[in-house]
Amino acid sequence: MNEGFWLGEAMEGILSFRFFLLLLNMLK
After folding, report:
1. Is 4 helix (H, G, I), strand (E, B) or coil?
2. DSSP state letters, 5-28
3. Is the dihedral of CA 6, 7, 12, 15 positive or negative?
4. CA-to-CA distance for 23 and 17, rounded, in angstroms?
């Protein structure tokens, strides 16, 4: 198992999720 790979995937998911929230706030 490559832990660095999973950590990178998680970080990318969090970043995209935060970007999605930011977009939602701007649309309000």
Report:
1. helix
2. HHHHHHHHHHHHHHHHHHHHHHH-
3. positive
4. 10
The amino acid at 9: E
Q: What is the pLDDT of residue 5?
A: 86
Tallying the residues shown for the chain, one arrives at 28
Amino acid at 14: I
| pLDDT per position as a tens digit, 1-28 | 678 888 889 999 999 999 999 999 999 8
CA–CA dist 5, 19 (Å, integer): 21
